């Protein structure tokens, strides 16, 4: 009689070998239509890693073998970038941690055009080389009365670096001590200027500077007089500064360069103390520098504007400086800047101009919608700010939806993420920086976050 041998089952973490043999092969999963579509969208390596991880889960008994495809697809990101969309409900219009100004629909569309091959430096009529960024620069000049020349670089600090290098390398920059500011992430304007080979000639004191301080400092070795708007702080009390017009009168042949910071091109009634490019040039500045991703409402860019006469000549000479090539903007930035300037009002401008009553109405409707879902929500008055190094000290009447504090973390973890602010033990979703079209998405995110 033949011996009876019991069936031997090998187990790994309690899973039979037969079970593991049911896990589909990698190439079979990758060939499935839904997975193949993900490969076309996200790339083979990323999708393959997700498939392999799902297979390992199936072999460990965490999921059934038939669920490998669904698990792999569920673990994939929605896009090839790790960046996630965020609904800005903080009440800070230009939140640096969220990329400052959101682009207009026109600018987003322009990016899609520029993303492929395009005539960025090609004259289609002649087939020869065209003027790079001509349309964007023309749009910038049209938007700033009094500007005779313009140039674009990759951010505001880049413009200052080019100006300091081109006009004051090995020479002096006369600047008030109270304007030697620190910008984001610990970077300091004086360190930037000195790195170009210029020497700083500081005048005045922290809180007060007089015309005579500048007049005494200007000499044969002066490359430029620099005025920097303290865009992320205010000094009040016993203070004095010298305006652009006064600096222009005493400067003589020395160019006056003004960094206005926030990129406001013309005056705005809600921001009476925020310098704008048109007024600064009209006051006599030779050059004005600014950022494109703040109150202009465009992409990250550095704006360089020159006044008539000498200012225009300086822009042209700086445009031809060797450093300008290293700091130039790409076709995407050129397209987005042009569309920002020529298209409809930007989201930043719409948020700035939103009426307090419309915000209150939206908050009341949103809170009522959430209460109907059984969520403890109330509409409350709120105060918003410009942010992003613009209009320090200026507050904007706003409205918000008040939720229990526990919603803050849950909303940040959602898709899309919603970021509010904590105030007096409540999570406030301020609507000033959000367009009305975002309200349904906010409501859905809150409902999903209640757990």
Structure write-up:
This protein has 451 residues and is of the alpha/beta class. The chain is 38% helix and 18% strand. The chain is built from 19 helices and 15 strands. It has helices at 17-21, 26-31, 33-42, 44-59, 68-74, 105-114, 134-143, 156-168, 189-195, 211-217, 244-251, 277-282, 310-319, 322-326, 331-342, 347-353, 356-372, 407-412, 439-449; strands spanning 11-12, 15-16, 86-88, 149-153, 172-176, 199-203, 222-228, 256-261, 287-291, 302-306, 378-387, 390-404, 417-419, 421-423, 426-430. Strands 4-10-9-8-7-5-6 form a 7-stranded mixed sheet, with helices on both faces. α17 packs parallel to α19 (439-449). The protein is globular. The model is unreliable at 1-13 (pLDDT under 50).
Summarize the structure in short:
It is built from 19 helices and 15 strands. By secondary structure, the chain is α/β, with parallel strands linked by helices.
């Amino acid at each position: 009689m033949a011996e009876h041998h019991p069936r031997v089952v090998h187990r790994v973490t309690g899973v039979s070998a037969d079970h593991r043999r049911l896990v589909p092969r990698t190439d079979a999963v990758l060939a499935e239509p839904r997975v193949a579509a993900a490969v076309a969208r996200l790339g083979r390596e990323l999708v393959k890693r997700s498939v392999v991880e799902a297979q390992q889960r199936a072999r460990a008994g965490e999921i059934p073998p038939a669920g490998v495809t669904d698990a792999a697809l569920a673990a994939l990101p929605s896009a090839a970038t790790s960046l996630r969309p965020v609904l800005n409900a903080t009440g800070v219009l230009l939140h640096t941690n969220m990329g400052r100004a959101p682009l207009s629909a026109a600018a987003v569309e322009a990016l899609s055009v520029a993303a492929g091959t395009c005539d960025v430096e090609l004259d289609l009529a002649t087939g020869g080389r065209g003027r790079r960024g001509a349309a964007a620069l023309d749009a910038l000049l049209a938007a700033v009365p009094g500007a005779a020349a313009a140039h674009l670089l990759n951010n505001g600090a880049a413009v200052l670096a080019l100006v300091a290098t081109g006009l004051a390398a090995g020479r002096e920059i006369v600047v008030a001590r109270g304007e030697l500011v620190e910008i984001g992430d610990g970077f300091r304007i004086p360190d930037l200027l000195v790195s170009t080979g210029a020497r700083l000639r500081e005048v005045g004191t922290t809180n007060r500077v007089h015309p005579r301080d500048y007049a005494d400092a200007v000499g044969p070795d002066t490359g430029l007089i620099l005025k920097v708007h303290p865009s992320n702080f205010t000094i009040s009390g016993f203070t004095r500064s010298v305006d652009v017009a006064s600096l222009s009168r005493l400067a003589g042949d020395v160019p006056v360069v003004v960094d206005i910071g926030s990129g406001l091109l013309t005056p705005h009634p809600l921001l009476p103390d925020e310098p704008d490019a048109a007024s600064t040039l009209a006051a006599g500045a030779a050059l004005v520098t600014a950022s494109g991703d703040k109150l202009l409402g465009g992409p990250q860019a550095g704006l360089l504007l020159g006044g008539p006469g000498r200012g225009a000549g300086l822009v042209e000479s700086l445009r031809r400086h060797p450093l300008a090539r290293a700091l130039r903007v790409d076709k995407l930035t050129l397209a987005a800047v042009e569309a920002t300037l020529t298209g409809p009002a930007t989201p930043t401008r719409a948020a700035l101009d939103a009426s307090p009553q419309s915000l209150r109405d939206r908050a009341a409707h949103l809170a009522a919608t959430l209460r109907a879902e059984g969520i403890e929500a109330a509409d409350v008055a709120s105060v918003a700010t410009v942010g992003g190094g613009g209009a320090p000290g200026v507050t904007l009447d706003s409205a918000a939806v008040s939720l229990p504090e526990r919603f803050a973390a849950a909303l940040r973890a959602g898709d899309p993420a919603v970021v509010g602010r904590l105030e007096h033990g409540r999570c406030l979703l301020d609507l000033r920086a959000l367009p009305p079209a975002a309200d349904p998405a906010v409501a859905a995110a809150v409902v999903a976050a209640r757990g």
